[in-house]
Amino acid sequence: MEYSLSTPLSKETTESLRVGDVVFISGVVITARDKAHVRMVEYFREHKELPFKLEGAVIFHGAPIVKKENGEWKIVAIGPTTSARMDDLEPAVIEHGAAAIVGKGGMGRGVLAALRDHGAVYLSMTGGTAVLGARMVKKVVSLIWEDLGMSEAVWALEVENFGPVTVTMDSHMGDLYEDVRRRVSENIKGLRI
Amino acid sequence: MEDTLIEEAVIALLRRAVTTLPGDVLAALEASLLIERDPAAKRELGRIIENVQEAGACTLPMCQDTGLPVFFARMGLTVPGFEEAVARGVRRATEEVPLRKNVVHPLTRQNTGDNTGKGMPYVYYTCESSAHIELTAMPTGGGSENMSALAMLNPSGGLPASKGCVLDTVVRAGGKPCPPVIVGVGIGGTSDECMALAKKALLRRVGSRNPDPAAARLEMELMYAINRTGIGPMGLGGDTTALAVHVEYVYCHTASLPVAVNFQCYAARRATARIYKDGSIELGGE
User: Is A169's Cβ below 8 Å from some Cβ in B?
Assistant: First the structure.
């Protein structure tokens, strides 16, 4: 099935998604990778309020190439990074309200359980497709935690029809990457050369 | 020779590399779309090709990870201050192309903000008898580089162990290095030499074969096996996991069997220029 969704995402919406569904997102996505995840978890531990809203949010594992034109940030290129690096930190982010995670390569069992517990989804974007990615960004809403450096800072981006992204891990323990891994381990049995 | 010439060449090479996929790689992607049977894999390949074409048409970086600045220099001439000129070119390209600022201190994780630092850019040198410098830029993305592996195998395992090692590494990497990948395989040498061979194997054109028949056969066998794993484009399943397997070998110690694997994501960015004594630059039509 193909869906067009608007942020913030309701739990009802994300729970209805199944592995294999294709999604287009309009609204705001929030980029966060390694350092931003570490900081979010620090904030949770210290019960500090985040400078952006996590409830129903779409977290995007990506960092753009940017340039400043007439005092405004312009996204030159943006695509997904390898999500597995955030495996240990993501369950807390999901627990605190993130409704969808966009990245590439899939995530671990702990994240899958968190998706189930909180009715969230993991969405895969085609790796490297950064020109197509930049085109879907209408404008930069805000730049947060700039001190983390330009490739680690948090960017709130207004997007239109951000996709296609594929539901590869859903809230019903569906995991396309795990399915592929199982098939691969069957396939390689006959390939030992 | 003016070292500003090197600087200009470096900017031109990086711009070319990050915006324009070499023709042999694009042709391999297009061919794979024709034979791929999985519908989701076809969609992934379609997005990949569309993105690459748009990047080339608009001179924009095809991937936001414009990589680490890695160069291969075949030195037929000596230029005082060569390495510093390459670094200046990298700094300027970072602003002018632009490139993402990826280079950090490994202990403090502090970003230098200009893609240079101690040991960066990284330049491989070979000396040759010619009247020019042949400089290749091959920016290395983090996602595929992170999947690199080196195994010091038991020599009694022989060729089957070497093949198994490569296959296991590809399976373990799954979708993380952005398949369809080019798999660079180094066999033999010392540990460091083996790893470097795997990296240099990625310089070869897709579709080329190692001139040694035994190595060429190994390339074909590995390619066959890898594309039957079912990992598929971006690890979502399918027939297209590798665009090419390139094997390079050197002789090694009788007690050793080093095998190294280095991945190149489908965005196999490389560009080559010849720089002549008279100040002319010939940018290769890769």
Answer: no
**Interchain contact, B51 vs A179, CB within 8 Å:** no
Is the CATH code 2.40.280.10 the one for domain A2-185?
Answer: no
A150 vs B111: CB contact, 8 Å cut-off? Answer: yes
A181 contact B CB<8A = yes
A183 touches chain B (CB under 8 A): yes
| pLDDT(A160) > 60 | yes
**What are the residue ranges spanned by the domains of chain B?**
3-20+61-141+268-283, 142-264
Question: Which of A180, A187, A189, A192 is the mutation pick for testing B, counting most B CBs within 10 A?
Answer: A180
Question: What ipTM is given for this predicted complex?
Answer: 0.90
CB-CB neighbours of A73 under 10 Å: 17
Q: Answer yes or no: are the C-beta atoms of B133 and B79 closer than 8 Å.
A: yes
Which residues in chain A are contacts of B230 at CB distance < 8 A?
Answer: 180, 183-184, 187
CA distances from B262 to B125, B157, B180 (A): 19, 21, 14
Task: Determine whether the interchain pair A185/B174 forms a contact, defined as Cβ–Cβ distance below 8 Å.
Answer: no
A77/B234 CB distance under 8 A: no
Give, for all 286 residues of chain B, the pLDDT tens digit: 678 999 999 999 999 999 999 999 999 999 999 999 999 999 999 999 999 999 999 999 999 999 999 999 999 999 999 999 999 999 999 999 999 999 999 999 999 999 999 999 999 999 999 999 999 999 999 999 999 999 999 999 999 999 999 999 999 999 999 999 999 999 999 999 999 999 999 999 999 999 999 999 999 999 999 999 999 999 999 999 999 999 999 999 999 999 999 999 999 999 999 999 998 999 985 5
Residue B216 CA to residue B67 CA, distance in Å, equals 29
pLDDT of residue B3: 80
The per-residue pLDDT for range B256-275, each reduced to its tens digit, is 999 999 999 999 999 999 99
Pairing mode, strands A2-6 and A22-31: parallel
